[in-house]
Amino acid sequence: MRPSKRAPDEMRPVSFERGVARYAEGSCLVKFGNTHVLCAASLEDKPPPWLRGQGRGWVTAEYAMLPRATHTRTRRESSSGKPSGRTQEIQRLIGRSLRAVTHLPALGERQVVVDCDVLQADGGTRTAAISGAWLALHDCFQWMRSRSIIKENPLRDHVAAVSCGVCDAGPVIDLDYGEDSTAKTDANFVITGGGGLVEVQSTAEAAVFTEADLSAMLSLARAGIGKLIEMQKAAIA
């Protein structure tokens, strides 16, 4: 039995609330159980310097955790002068996930930055951020189209993410912090609406995992992400 009493294939309660940041071109507050992430998409009317003159845009992300998002206060990374390696890895993952379903030439020479700020953390912050960031990006593109900044929707597909792991209960989906901190294997899956794999991160912790374990986690992830994408579709309907 999982500590949360959930079935192995049962995710935490998930919700998406759009339009929560008044000034952002697109925003979404996503909740995976007690993990809450605010995603806000901002349009910048110029691409990164290294893309200038190439006729295409860019989508990137920044990630941060509020000091009291966790049980004890975490020092703000801005006070140390640079983001941690973990933060850089997560924000690059979010950016890659969004670009995988974005037709960048349709943006023109512009950039969209999606800020993902963790308000409350209980495991799975990166997967919640990716799932909510897609909605924030969608609304940003809709905002641009309504003002004739772009002619077509650059989004080519949905994308969402979920964590899985191998615990005492076997392969399970959507780990909270209690499970994540004791899992024998933890993994993150990013999958598009069409079923394409964007990224798979899987790491042995207490023991090595087998190909059967990986296959079982992927099966759980596909089912869970299918539900997340249906929720994304319902949110924008």
TrEMBL record:
GO molecular function ontology, one term from the record: tRNA nucleotidyltransferase activity
Region Disordered, annotated ranges: 69-89
Record-annotated Exoribonuclease phosphorolytic domain positions: 10-140, 159-223
Catalytic activity entry: tRNA(n+1) + phosphate = tRNA(n) + a ribonucleoside 5'-diphosphate
PROSITE patterns: RIBONUCLEASE_PH
Record-listed E.C. numbers: 2.7.7.56
Protein name listed in UniProt: Ribonuclease PH
Source organism of this protein record: Methylosinus trichosporium (strain ATCC 35070 / NCIMB 11131 / UNIQEM 75 / OB3b)
